[in-house]
Structures are given as C-alpha cells and as structure tokens.
C-alpha cells in the first residue's frame, strides 16, 4: 500500500468519501500503435475479472468496417463508447482505465482524455523503443505533470538492450527511470524478471498472470534455466542495475520527473500483474482539480465534475449524446440534481452510467476519479462543469492547435446559414475545431487526425443534409493570440485581418502558412503571445 492510501485508510476519522477516493486510480495507457495497448488492456481487465475472455477488446476492434460509410464510423464510435472507460477492481482498488483512441482515429479526444486521468502507463515496444506518438502523448501528460509508469512490452521477442531503452527514455523524454523489475535473458532466451528491490523472481514459463509472492532463486539457479545464461554475468548485471540506476523516489514520480519501469509481455500475460500492483501502490488517488475560483479537493463533500468528452449516439435521427464526466469531488448519486454552471440551469442526473468492458450499468453512486456517462440531448459541452450549486468552472480541459486545417466547401451556397449552425454544433461537441476568418471568407476546420474530417463530412450529410468538401488552405497552422495590453491586441487584429479568425468562443486565432511566419510575426509584434494550447473555460 502506498503512503497516501495508508494514511487515508488508517485514519479512522476519514469520511466515507475520503475512503472511496483513496482507493481509486484513474489512468490511461499511452503508446504508439502496435506497441501492445489493446493486448495489455485485455490482460489488465482479466485481473479485475471485468471480462471473462481475453480477446474481447480485440474482437471489437476487428469488427470495425470501412471508414467511408458513416454508419460504420458511428458504429465504430458507438463501440468505442463501451471502451471509452473501463472500470475494474483489484485488491481493494477501483481502477478506471480511460481509453485513448490510438490508431487512425487519433483525434483531440485522445488529448482531452489525458486531462481526466491522474496517471498514465506508457507502453513501449522493446524492439522499437520510443516512437513518435508516445512522445507526443507524453508531452500532453507533461502539461499536467501526470506521473508515468512504464511497461516495456514484447520482451518475449527480440528486443533492444534494456539499458539502452532506459537511456533512450531518459534522453529523449527527459524522464529519470527506475527499473522495478529486470529482464533475465533477451529475445528467445528471455526467461523471466527479477524484482530489483527483493531479488525475487518470476518465470515466463509458469508465472503468467501472477501477482504477489515471488520465487526465491539464486543467480546460479536462474542461470541453470537456459544455456545462454551465465550466473556470474547475471549477478554483475543485477549489481549494475542496483548500483547504477536511480533508486525509486515517490515524490519525484508523483511530480512526473521519474518513471518506474516494468518489463514483460502483454501477450503472455507476464509482468502485467506486477505493473498493476505498481499502479495500485504508487499511482496517486484522484488529485485536486483547479477551478477558476478555487482548487477543489477530491475529498470534499459536495459533488463536482467536468465533461471531457462527448460521444454522439448511433441513431442519426436523434441528437442524443453521451457526455463523459470525470468526478472531481463529493458523491454522485443517481437521480440527483446538478447545476450546469455554464447555463445556470439545473439538470437531473437520472441515468448516469458506468462502463465495463462490454457492458454499461446505471451508476447508483460515483466518487472523485470515476467517469460516468451522462446521456443528454446536446445541452452538455466539452469543458462544462457540473456542481451541486456552486458557481465554479474547472479549468484545464484544453484545446490543442490543430495539425490539419481545411477550408469547408459547400456544394449548395444557399445552405451557408445552415452550415454555420451545423459547424457550431459540431465544434461544441468537439468533433472538429471551427475557425471563422475575420475577412468573412468560408470557415476553416481544424483537426489533429484525418478521421475527424471523415466523421464531420458524414455527419453533416446525414444529420443536416449538407454536402461538403474540404479544400486545402493557404494556412497550415493556427495559434491563439493574447496580449496583456488589450489595445495592442486590437491593433494586431486590425493589421492582420487577412490571417486571423475567431474560434468557437470568439477568441482570436492567428492563421499562418508556416512556423517561420509565426516567428517572424512574433518578432514584429513584441508583447503578442502565440500559443498552441488553450484552456476551455
Ligand atoms: P496496439 O496497437 O498498441 O493496441 O497493439 P496490440 O495490442 O493490438 O498489439 C499489436 C501486435 O503486437 C499484435 O499482433 C499483438 O498480438 C502483438 N503483441 C502485443 N503484445 C505482445 C507481446 O508481449 N509479445 C509479442 N510477441 N507480441 C505482442
């Protein structure tokens, strides 16, 4: 048990809410496609008994069909409703695993999901090391100092030297590493791992799916398992690990500066139990969240939550949406009335839902760290705050500058007004970002993954009867601009009318054909700040 949960559990005066909070661990898995996220997810869920059959998550993915058919996209998205968050219990902890869509459907949802977690598991393919997507997702974790636990996967295959992988993490991610386990043998000769602190052993053959007590074996006994192993060399290597690597420092981990590293094979369900135990021991319980007027502690009695993701429903005739809200404090009970702070209106939480691997279930009660789905007809937006009456808004659900900008081309010019409305709604739902150029030219849409454009096109057609296409634009990049001096900002906007736009909230955005141009403009306008991340208010 870690220091935090021990203190909460041993404090007999702790409120029931504090006890519930202390046992929650809300996390995401970040990785590059094919590193093994799906396989690891399946195995983690198996530990929690959340699914009986490993392979379930994969079966879902394989059912995905072509991206050209809008129903298929929605179906795929519908399926991903069930896998957006997965809750399971293990050894007294409640784990909420939030899915970060990983493959071609990489989108802003992926980024935003990371604003709703308290820790992340970084999965690295032992043969490939750090890959581009992992680096990008880690940068997003960095924005919030999210602690990272590392799982080096596919140790059952040819892999790189473990020291080299650790070195790469330290150098390219600027993250200190502490190996918690150490692999014995490489590739085909990989026989298991040694627990660095105790010297206890797990064997690839025989200890699959295990947690808890380790085997006691001498280096000679381990070396006897495989002709390529040499007891002396093994002993030297472990000495080097113990003396040469950083020792684990909980504070440094919690601040996001150091990552504990586990080696294993998700496919063989090896090392996954140790990773899960590590998550329970070291990952923090739900953190305090910053709101505009104050910081909200997870143990507070009154319910607060924020919406970080909206999922459209599958039926195109109904504008039903599922809003995913992360609880930040208090207790949510089914049927309670909440206040939607943006509008000031009350909202009855009649059917909040929990998600398990393949099921959903009405959530009778939920606590900080939990994620509930709230069905609604479009009244909830990304970034919305729900409270029991208090006028606060959570900050920190960000918008990220899009990586792809396209000009929306409408086949029927008579429908411009309808398009405007439709784009507004799609932007509120977080499907795309919309930028309205100051010079009155047609709107630009911004996305981080190309599938978002497919989804937008298909939904505009199916739900609004709008036939649109996308033209490449002279602009490649969008940056939010701000300035402490309001007058200067106005001057900037006036002088750059041909390359500025308003976003969904009416905030000023600078559109640029290149990074060079942003730098150049910045030099000419000292005091104007260009940013690629914006907090949703
Ligand atoms: P994702 O794209 O990150 O979700 O990766 P998947 O879980 O779909 O895995 C990608 C491929 O790697 C699949 O063929 C898996 O069977 C394989 N794989 C995943 N984990 C392991 C592992 O530990 N060892 C081996 N040999 N293959 C693995």
UniProtKB/TrEMBL annotation:
Cellular localisation: Cytoplasm
Binding site residues for GTP: 31-38, 99-103, 153-156
Keywords assigned: Cytoplasm, GTP-binding, Nucleotide-binding, Protein biosynthesis
Annotated GO CC locations: cytosol
Function description: Increases the formation of ribosomal termination complexes and stimulates activities of RF-1 and RF-2. It binds guanine nucleotides and has strong preference for UGA stop codons. It may interact directly with the ribosome. The stimulation of RF-1 and RF-2 is significantly reduced by GTP and GDP, but not by GMP.
SUPFAM superfamilies listed in its UniProt record: EF-G C-terminal domain-like (SSF54980), P-loop containing nucleoside triphosphate hydrolases (SSF52540), Translation proteins (SSF50447)
PANTHER family in the cross-refs: PEPTIDE CHAIN RELEASE FACTOR RF3
Gene3D superfamilies: P-loop containing nucleotide triphosphate hydrolases, Peptide chain release factor 3, domain III, Translation factors
Gene Ontology BP terms: regulation of translational termination
Domain of life: Bacteria
Similarity annotation: Belongs to the TRAFAC class translation factor GTPase superfamily. Classic translation factor GTPase family. PrfC subfamily.
Organism: Ancylobacter mangrovi
Protein name: Peptide chain release factor 3
Annotated InterPro entries: EF-G-like_DII (IPR053905), EFG_III/V (IPR035647), G_TR_CS (IPR031157), P-loop_NTPase (IPR027417), PrfC (IPR004548), RF3_C (IPR032090), RF3_dom_3_sf (IPR038467), RF3_GTP-bd (IPR041732)
Taxonomic classification: Bacteria, Pseudomonadati, Pseudomonadota, Alphaproteobacteria, Hyphomicrobiales
MF annotations from Gene Ontology: GTP binding; GTPase activity; guanosine tetraphosphate binding; translation release factor activity, codon nonspecific; translation release factor activity, codon specific
Residue ranges occupied by any Tr-type G domain in the UniProt entry: 22-287
């Amino acid at each position: 048990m870690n220091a935090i949960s021990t203190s909460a559990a041993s404090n007999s005066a702790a409120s029931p809410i504090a006890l519930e909070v202390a046992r929650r661990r809300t996390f995401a898995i970040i990785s590059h496609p094919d590193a093994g996220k799906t396989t690891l997810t399946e195995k983690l869920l198996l530990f929690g008994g959340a699914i009986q059959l490993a392979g379930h998550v994969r079966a879902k993915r394989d059912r995905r069909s072509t991206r050209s058919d809008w129903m298929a996209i929605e179906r795929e998205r519908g399926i991903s409703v069930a896998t957006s968050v997965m809750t399971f219990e293990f050894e007294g902890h409640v784990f909420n695993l939030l899915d970060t869509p990983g493959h071609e459907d990489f989108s802003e949802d992926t980024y935003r999901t990371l604003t709703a977690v308290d820790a992340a598991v970084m999965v690295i393919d032992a043969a490939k090391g750090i890959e581009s997507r992992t680096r990008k997702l880690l940068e997003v974790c960095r924005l919030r100092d999210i602690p990272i636990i590392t799982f080096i996967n596919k140790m059952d295959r040819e892999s790189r030297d473990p020291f080299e992988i650790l070195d790469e993490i330290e150098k390219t991610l600027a993250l200190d590493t502490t190996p918690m386990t150490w692999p014995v043998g490489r590739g085909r000769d990989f026989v298991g791992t040694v627990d660095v602190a105790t010297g206890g052993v797990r064997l690839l053959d025989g200890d699959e799916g295990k947690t808890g007590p380790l085997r006691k074996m001498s280096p000679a006994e381990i070396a006897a398992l495989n002709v390529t192993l040499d007891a002396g060399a093994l002993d030297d290597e472990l000495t080097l690990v113990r003396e040469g690597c950083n020792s684990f420092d909980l504070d440094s981990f919690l601040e996001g500066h150091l990552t504990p590293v586990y080696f294993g094979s998700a496919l063989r369900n090896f090392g996954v139990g140790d990773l899960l135990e590590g998550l329970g021991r070291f990952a923090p319980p739900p953190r305090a969240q910053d709101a505009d007027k104050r910081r909200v502690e997870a143990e507070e009695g009154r319910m607060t939550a924020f919406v970080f993701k909206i999922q459209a429903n599958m039926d195109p005739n109904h504008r039903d949406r599922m809003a995913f809200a992360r609880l930040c404090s208090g207790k949510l009970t089914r049927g309670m009335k909440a206040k939607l702070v943006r509008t000031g209106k009350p909202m009855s939480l009649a059917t909040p839902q929990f998600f398990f691997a393949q099921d959903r279930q009405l959530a009778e009660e939920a606590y900080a760290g939990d994620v509930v789905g709230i069905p609604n007809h479009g009244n909830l937006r990304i970034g919305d705050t729900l409270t029991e009456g208090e006028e606060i808004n959570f900050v920190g659900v960000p918008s990220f500058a899009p990586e792809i900008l396209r000009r929306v081309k409408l086949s029927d010019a008579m429908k411009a007004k309808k398009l405007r409305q439709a784009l507004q709604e799609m932007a509120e739902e977080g499907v795309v970002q919309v930028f309205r150029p100051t010079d009155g030219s047609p709107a630009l849409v911004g996305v981080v993954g190309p599938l978002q454009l497919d989804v937008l096109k298909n939904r505009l057609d199916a739900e609004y009867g709008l036939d649109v296409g996308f033209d490449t634009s002279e602009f490649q990049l969008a940056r939010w601009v701000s300035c402490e001096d309001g007058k200067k900002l106005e001057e900037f906007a006036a002088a750059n009318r041909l390359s500025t736009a308003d976003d969904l909230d009416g905030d000023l955005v600078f559109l640029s054909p290149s990074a060079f141009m942003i730098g150049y403009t910045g030099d000419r306008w000292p005091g104007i700040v260009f940013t690629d991340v914006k907090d949703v208010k």
